[in-house]
Amino acid sequence: MNLSLASPPRTLFEKIWDQHVVMPRSAGPSLLYIDRHIIHEGSFHAFKDLRARGLTIRNPQQVFGVADHYVPTTSRDPNDAITAEIKEVILKFDDNMKWSGAHYFSIKDPQQGIVHVVGPEQGMSLPGSVITCSDSHTSTHGAMGAMAFGVGQSESMHVMATQTLWQAKPLQMRVELNGKPAAGVGGKDIILAVIAKLGVAGAVGFAVEYTGSALQWLSLDDRLTMCNMTIEAGARSGLIAADDLVFNYLYGRNFAPKGAAWDQALREWQQLPSDDGCHFDQTLSIDVAQLSPMLTWGTTPDTGLAIEGVVPDPSALSDPHARDAALAALAYMDLTPGTALSTINIDRVFIGSCTNSRLSDLRIAADILRGRRAVVPGIVVAGSMLIKQAAEAEGLDKVFQAAGLEWREPGCSMCVGINGDLALPNERVASTSNRNFVGRQGPGVRTHLVSPAMAAAAAVTGHFTDVRTLMGQQ
After folding, report:
1. Residue 6 lies in a domain
2. What digits encode the pLDDT tens for the residues 96-122?
3. Strand partners, 378
4. 36 and 154 part of one domain
5. Helix ranges restricted to H, 236-356
6. Phi, psi of 64, deg, nearest 5
7. Cβ neighbours of residue 89 under 8 Å, at least 6 residues apart?
8. Is the pLDDT confidence value at 472 over 80?
9. Same domain flag for 207 and 250
10. Is 198 part of any domain?
11. 389 and 337 part of one domain
């Protein structure tokens, strides 16, 4: 064997990239083939441009639509939309999707849900594929072993018209997660710890692959949560090599390969994990066994701290820009340096979003709430109709309602708030969503990002609480 002719070891991302380059360039963007493109109601801009240019969908079987951002969670009727304009957006989505010939899930579809929950659930998200979606948290699908990233409306139109997209190849980052997470620590806590180390711009220009022994202890839902929030560190995408957990999940799903095609696909998917000795431009290692339940204190997702911590003092920061940003965050969040995080009172909880609305998330929250009563209001929003039905079959809806929380219909809901699900001005919210920017959940609303378990613990105590104390642990 002539070793000089052997291919150099490649990362998972590089293998997918190489298989999808239609027109390579040594400098600048290359033209990539897109396997599947997913859109939501906000795609009306892309459709308007498509129609204005006299173009049609090139491959309707590779485009999927899901109504999720604007839909009301109080009913499945577009007439219950918060405004007439939003009702029109929902109806226009149906019109555009019927015109396109692509498969779609309308507000009344029994399999409707949040786009990044429905994608894996329906088998749209497959290992080794390139997936785009007109939403920033498309990185979620990377947990299926895919290369997935969000696109803008002009890019969405380009994908629909050509099934391709110009993209610059990112650098490669490896995040090694080692150790077994303690009880009460899950995917949300791990990704908040990662983002706290990297910062909101620490992964700009990178595709991030998660590796390490900790992955064996994480559920697929945990992995989806981690890839979902990878973009909050500025990354283009987050990936985890598909394994039997993913393969078993995908088998028999609506849009997954069937029969002989499945066998062939499985053989190809098993060749995708990063090769031994492959090059990463940067590596971050974290011992997850040392992590505690996390929450954010500021107005960016990188302000995560362990529940045992205190609000930091900006005066300790040497960078004047970082210091000014921290001071502004403290002022908006109405917090004082040195305050124990476990003493911060909350006004409302939100359990949902494409980050934490899957069945295991709901089970975890229900386990904390069962037999207890929430002392603040809140809503629980399942990630899809199928998850909602499964949760109700297990009686989880009754647990949430008995605790005093509202059980809603699937949708993006209070994560982005454009459907009318908002907190009141100056309220402090324990939220399982992915962003805590100023005004994200309403004018003046103070958002703290937490796991479903931590949100449930805060609901029953009225303040941020180490969920492990409610699990009978110290």
Report:
1. no
2. 999 999 999 999 999 999 999 999 999
3. 349
4. yes
5. 244-250, 260-269, 320-333
6. -135, 140
7. 41, 42, 44, 70, 81
8. no
9. no
10. yes
11. yes
Q: How many helices (H) and strands (E) does the chain have?
A: 15, 19
What tens digit of pLDDT does each residue of 395-440 get?
Answer: 999 999 999 999 999 999 999 999 999 999 999 999 999 999 999 9
Tokens of 459: 């609901």
Cα–Cα dist 187/220, whole Å: 9
Strands of 171-178's sheet in order across: 237-239, 206-211, 171-178, 282-287
User: Tell me, what's the pLDDT at 426?
Assistant: 97
Q: What pLDDT is stored for residue 57 in this prediction?
A: 97
**Position 99 in a domain:** yes
Structure tokens at 231: 């973009």
Q: Do 281 and 350 share a domain, yes or no?
A: no
pLDDT at 1: 39
- The CA distance from 81 to 74, in Å, is 9
| Token duo for residue 184 | 């009460």
Predicted model pTM: 0.97
Report percent pLDDT > 90 for the chain.
Answer: 97
Q: How many domains does the chain have?
A: 3
Is the domain of 52 the same as that of 27? Answer: yes
Q: 147 lies in which domain range? A: 12-169+244-265
Instruction: Tell me the one-letter amino acid at 369.
Output: L
